Amino acid sequence: MLEPQAAPTIAVRLTLFADLRRFEPKGSSGPRVFVLESGATVADLVAEAGIPATEDVTVGLNGERGSLDVPLHDGDDVVLFSQMEGG
Questions:
Q1: Do residues 67 and 3 touch, judged by C-beta distance below 8 A?
Q2: Is 3.30.230.10 the CATH classification of the domain at 9-82?
Q3: What φ, ψ does residue 73 adopt, rounded to 5°?
Q4: What is the pLDDT along the chain (87 residues), one digit of tens a residue?
Q5: Which runs of E-coded beta strand occur in the chain?
C-alpha cells in the first residue's frame, strides 16, 4: 500500500519590529522559524504568526521591500514593521 506523501514544505525566518513585537510569544526574542506549505505567501506567514489581517505592515523580504502577496521560498528572511506616520 502506498503511503500518502506529505506536501512539500519551506522554512522561513520571521523577525517582528516595533509595535508588531506584541505578537511574539512571551519570552521570545529574535527571529522565529516557520515551516509552511510550498507556495505560501507573506500573507500566509503573517496569519501563521497570529498577526490579524487588519494590521498594516511593511514587508521586507531578503533585504528588499516586499508585499503580502509575494510567494515565499525555502530560506527566505522576512521582516515586518508597523506602518508609521509622521509629519
A1: no
A2: no
A3: -130, 160
A4: 666 667 799 999 999 998 999 999 888 878 999 999 999 999 999 999 999 999 999 999 999 999 999 999 999 999 999 987 565
A5: 9-16, 32-37, 57-61, 64-66, 77-82
